[in-house]
Amino acid sequence: xxxxxxxxxKQAGQTERCHPADxxxxxxxxxxxxxxxxxxxxxxxxxxxxxxxxxxxxxxPDRRAFVLDAGAGSGLVAQAxxxxxxxxxxxxxxxxxxxxxxxxxxxxxxxxxxxxxxxxALADHRFDAILAAGVLKxxxxxxxxxxxxxxxxxxxxxxxxxxxxxxxxxEEYNRMRRRLETGHQWRPLIAxxxxxxxxxxxxxxxxxxxxxxxxxxxxxxMPPQP
Length: 226
What we know:
It is a single chain. By secondary structure, the chain is α/β, with parallel strands linked by helices. It has a single domain (46-215), classed as Rossmann fold. The protein is built from six helices and nine strands, in the order ββααβαβαββαβαββ. A seven-stranded mixed beta sheet has the order 5-4-3-6-7-9-8, with helices on both faces. Strands 1-2 form a two-stranded antiparallel ribbon. It starts with a strand and ends in a 12-residue tail after the last strand.
């Protein structure tokens, strides 16, 4: 059975159904939502950015860290990052209208217009940490995007993302998450208890935030040679 993810467009005045393969339609939905997105998220009580940044502060306390905001949207994650002193942040999003709003806030060193999981989208970067808020679900970034995040982070880097707590809804993502574990490409550090990401939206499914550390040893982590 095909699965769709609703994207609300105030301009269209209705909820559009976006097929997982139709990235153009998905970006268009967010383009239409961009002028109202920040106000809507405030009204809905969107909790994910603050909770993710709280985890980053625990695991990557260095405010000079090179951080990717994957699925930047209008920059809500980057705003939370800036509030705690993180300055080296790159934003990535497929919606030009959302990315433009994010970049005009002066929160990013660089803005990249591309979809998470697109071929070679992150090939030129090696981040200390990646935060992916609200993008790993049907109709958005595919499960394979988890592997792309691993490849884009330096050895022993940190990846923080949220998934729906419902095992059926997140089945393919959880399968990929466990596959990367058994392949020793990353290891789990934290899995939060299920929480309501949008308290103001009664129909929203509960989420879990995961924190992973990638495998390998960074040059800077090597012990001094005798």
